[in-house]
Amino acid sequence: MNLYQHLIPHGKTEYWQWGETLGISLGALLLSYSLLPGDPLNTHVFPWIWMAPVLIALRYGVFMGVVSVLIFLGGWLVWATDQAVSYAAFPRITFLGGTLMVMISGEFSGVWISRTRRIEELQHYTEQRLELLTRRLYLLSLSHDRLEQDLIGRPSSLREGLKELNRILPAVNGLPGADIYLALVVRQCNLSVAGLHAVNEGQISPESVASIGAFTPVDDQDPLIAHCIKSGELVHINTEENLTELPSRYLVAVPAKTADGRLIAIMAVEKMPFFALQTENMQTLSVLTSYYADTITATEFTPFLTDTLKDCPIDFFKAMHTLRRLQKDMQISSMLVGFAALDTRESAEQLKSIANAVRGLDETWTLVRGEWRLCLVLLPLAGAGALGGYLDRIEHIFVERFGTRPGQMGILTRSVTLEQDPISTRLDDLIVALTERAHDPQQ
Question: Which domains does the chain have, with CATH numbers?
Fold first, then answer.
């Protein structure tokens, strides 16, 4: 990378850093000059002026600290020229000591900035995964309740509707699968007149992508719609904000919000039966809409799948892609573990035990390639130590259930990190390595 790419600011944050560095450094020089015009660098007293570059280095790291030192150097040269001072009087020891102090402070700052970024990335990923797991748990509970009640007269079940959503294909523009989603929520939540609108950077599209009933173009100035965009949460006429007093033609506004907080669409409901406007139905509508948003987000990764990975679950591949970015940018490692065995009824049961023995954040994919059945387990935020603990736990489960270890039952194991780009190549390589190793009894 060229030097100028490091020097030129990128984004508002870096412009602010450069502004603070220049402002504090020049301000310190001017203040020192006004107090001690004959010795602006305080070489004959305690060098208070050097607190400015030290503070900058502690806040922004070594690079901006060195920039501040260079500003001091330029300020001294300007002062020496103005005062006709010989350059031989340059305070070498002062600059040497000050520069070393600034560099040590900057290095200390850089270590803690890096650690803070790692912690923030870990927290963001776990919060995103927790949000997805919470939605899935609610959907599971809801599906179980609906099955228990034996909903007579419904043309299809909630589970079938979710399967339809999972088959949504990516689209270049608009919201893919909008009609499928709307048909699902109409069946499950008893909507009469409603429309789905795309949202781009906080701006709602006036024309609906899909609608039911005599739905008219949405009014983005409507209080209910505006409050939904601002809060990012489901809003209806009985919410705590007492929206019943505001003039709105809508009953409910539902945001299609992804797990990482991105708002991609809003569904506005004009008419629905009175008995349907209750808490459980609103929760169902909100979760189904969020599930649809996550499904659309997941389809963005579909074009990156190779021909041999077309049956790979999108959630599994998306998690690999996210964790690869964390490993590349923040050196937070994750592991991918593969198990392979001949495709028999017994091996299917054994690999099912492995797939069920996962933590909350883990992702699994069971597949068949030729005569081999494989189970791939993605262990997020796991290093070599966590991998060893996971394999020990799998052995313990097998000894308890089957009376022997996986290797003694013909199950082969292989683990890799996510250090290779593209991530689809890493997945392909692991599958090929497992099947080739299974063919070779000497390995």
Answer: 3-119 (no CATH), 151-299 (3.30.450.40), 303-439 (3.30.70.2880)
